[in-house]
Amino acid sequence: MKTTPQKELEFLKNLRKRVPQPRSGSPVRLGMGDDCAILKPPLGAEVVVTTDFSLEGRHFRRDWHSSRSVGHRCLARGLSDLAAMGATPMAAFLSLALPAGTLQKATGRAWVEKFFDGLLNLAKTHDVILAGGDTATAPGSEILADILLLGSVPRRRALLRSGARAGDNLYVTGNLGGSAAELAVLSKTPRKFSNAKVGEVHPHLYPVPRIRVGQALLRRKLATSAIDISDGLSTDLLHLCEESRVSAILDAASIPLGPDASVDQALHGGEDYELLFTSSARMPSTIAGVHITRIGAIEAARRGQPAIRIRTQGGSIVPLIPQGWQHSL
Ligand SMILES: [Mg+2]
User: Fold this and answer.
1) What distance in Å separates the CA atoms of residue 121 and residue 126, rounded to the nearest whole number?
2) What's the distance, Cα to Cα, between the start and end of the chain in Å?
3) Vertex 51, ends 48 and 57: CA angle to 5°?
4) Which residues in the chain come in under a pLDDT of 50?
5) Residue 117 and residue 288: Cα distance in Å, rounded?
6) Prediction pTM value
């Protein structure tokens, strides 16, 4: 095993200094610096846990995504999973593997620094502490990051994929397809958004996890089931239908489209990180400042029938074959 040179250790130590310490009242009782972090979930809460890989060449490309965006997206993916459960974030843990020699070059150090800028900035927005992690030398030439997030939910109140019932309405937050549309532009002109910033509308580079919407859905008992749209509406709706043992009918004309997005990108594009949920309650038009749109309804599953059908803009009803992201190995 190769030991880490002094200069690299120094760099990592300085990075660690930038991670904010937990404030009093934080669920993180002890953050970085010991062998383990210590967390204290609120009284009567259950803990929800999610992990997400961000792998170079698979989830991002260094020539398309700035490292600030990679750091932001890395945490956003995990936060979006917490949002789908209605959870309140408690702490994040990051494992980062960098190709040999990365920290010996100024460009490599800058990459890592801006990665942390993106990640820590989003963490601050959602009051989540980076409470630990690990760094290692990657075996190959790609950067590999794995984020682990913990959140809390009141006991037995987490929003699940399995609660949808026939007769429920189907809703989505924000709009869909914007991420796929932006990625399509990025793949043709990689430098197009090189000055993109958090807070601007960049659904692919800087997605906004819907933490506050998820919390409100849980608190106000507005959802019977929920999932976040990471793989694409068609694929994630199928996950929800399978877990709830129901089928769904979508209305193509009512799907809210992101900037420059097509219906196809909204249906199959993925990485929108909006929430898809079902409800039998009266629905406000916005929740936590985010627009809510009814896009269909839940029906009883019928043997031999497709799980999802869609009413096209022409008015005919046809089966919808999920074509979103496949988690292939
Ligand atoms: Mg998810």
Assistant:
1) 9
2) 28
3) 160
4) 328-329
5) 26
6) 0.95
pLDDT the model gives residue 312: 93
Q: Between the CA of residue 250 and those of 42, 134, 169, 171, 242, what are the distances in Å?
A: 38, 43, 10, 10, 16
* Ligand 1: centre distance to CA 80 (Å): 7
Instruction: Give the pLDDT score at 90.
Output: 96
Identify whether the C-beta of residue 133 lies closer than 8 Å to the C-beta of residue 93. Answer: yes
What tens digit of pLDDT does each residue of 35-54 get? 999 999 999 999 999 999 99
Give the start-end residues of each E strand in the chain: 28-30, 38-39, 45-55, 88-99, 129-138, 144-154, 169-173, 225-228, 246-251, 275-279, 286-287, 290-300, 308-311, 317-319
At 133, which amino acid appears? Answer: G
> Residue 144 — φ and ψ, nearest 5°?
-125, 125
Residue 151 pLDDT = 98
CA of 78 from ligand 1 middle (Å) equals 8
Residue 152 is which amino acid? S
At 15, which amino acid appears? L
For ligand 1, a single-atom ion, the residues with CB < 5 A are: 81, 228, 230
